Amino acid sequence: MDSNAAILNIHRDDEGSKMGMWLFIFTELLLFAGLFIVYGIYRYLNPEAFTLAAEQLSVTIGTINTIALLISSATIAMASSSIRLKNKKLTLFLLLVTLVMAILFMVNKYFEWMGKIHHGLFPSSTTLHDLGSGDTLFFGLYFFMTGLHALHIVIGIVLIAIVFLRVKNNSITDNNPVLLDNSGLYWHMVDVIWIFLFPLFYLIT
């Protein structure tokens, strides 16, 4: 081990890094919990409008995206295990599958959003205004909450891509897999949030 590597190991705090990620995840879950509460209140006040508005969403697309995220969550978890088994090739493959599933999610979400915008079902549109306040609230929450979730997906894609490159150039190995582990924790959080968003917007009709 050269002197630079030794210095990095001395100053590396894996437990602190994981604790920091857990605190970040906790704050993000609190944010979405607040949004879920807001959604629940408005749905209670506008049950019929929310039910009819939910029927405008594609359960098929929502289901495909759910499956994609579940697969990606499993593959990044397996990547954390494979790096510890010193199987670099399998780790790279699993990270690549995770990225593909994440991109598939975003492509589906893009077409879904564009479809709603094309039909005038977006906040501040005349069509939505004519339908009433309940529909406006539903689609306002839909675009804001799924948009915020999509932002987390994009951040996750960038993070996992960085991990992929670092595994490829041996910056991440079985001796220092903490960045891969933290990326996995972050990605599991994204998955859990979607598990709540999916039934709230797509299935409760």
Q: How would you describe what is shown here?
A:
With 205 residues, the chain is mostly helical. The protein has one domain: Cytochrome c oxidase, subunit III, four-helix bundle (Four Helix Bundle (Hemerythrin (Met), subunit A), Up-down Bundle), CATH 1.20.120. 85% of the residues lie in helices and 0% in strands. The protein has 8 helices and no strands. Helix 2 (14-45) crosses helix 3, helix 2 (14-45) runs parallel beside helix 8 and helix 5 (88-118) packs antiparallel against helix 7 (133-168). The termini are far apart.
Secondary structure layout plus pairing:
Layout: H1 3-11, H2 14-45, H3 47-54, H4 59-84, H5 88-118, H6 126-131, H7 133-168, H8 178-203
What's the name of the CATH homologous superfamily?
A: Cytochrome c oxidase, subunit III, four-helix bundle
* C-alpha termini separation: 60 Å
Strand content: under 5%
Question: Within the CATH hierarchy, at the fold level, what is the topology?
Answer: Four Helix Bundle (Hemerythrin (Met), subunit A)
Number of domains: 1
- Principal-axis shape equals elongated
Secondary-structure element pattern, one letter each: HHHHHHHH
Tell me the major beta sheet: none
Helix content: over 70%
Poorly predicted runs are 1-8
What is the CATH level 1 assignment?
A: Mainly Alpha
